[in-house]
User: Fold this.
Amino acid sequence: MVVIDISPSFKSSVNQALGRPIIIANRFHFCRYIYWALDQVRRRVQKTFHEYDRKKCKQMRHVFHKRAEKLSEKQTWYLNRYLELSEELREVYGLKNQFQAWFDKHRTGKTEGTNVFAGLQAFYQAVETSALKVMKKAAKNIEELATRNSQQLYFGHTKGPIERLNNQTKVIKRNAFGFCRYDRLHLKMLLHHQLKEHTSRVG
Assistant:
């Protein structure tokens, strides 16, 4: 099994190099369409708010993405305030939560076989009854992605941990403004990632 980003060139290269393994689309791509739709609605709606609320809503945009149980009391207050100011924002936020609930069950292995697609079908039906065009477009993209990459829905693998390591390594390199010696950069990375089983010396 190989987990990759959605790219025809990546898929073709993996098939050629590894003899057509099971290719799994990184699950991040299933979620981003929903967050993009949510952000589009939020940006459009917040323009109708009072100047203070418009700026504050932009500053607190992360609260719309976070799970409700992970919000602080202050963040919950701001979230409820802006949801009360817009019915459209409440609707897109509710659809986001419905998809997120399905995704959490799928990620933790609580859905199996046809139940995976049953949860998605319920989400599609909820979107169909909505008047939000951006969410309908997002649902269509997810449906096409799920059809082409159904293996991801069954196996649930992700390359998130690798992406995290890569991102942290890039930050180390960027903050250092250049290393004169590769071995020092190598040690810095090992120290940060706590890979204590690897040993090396700077001579």
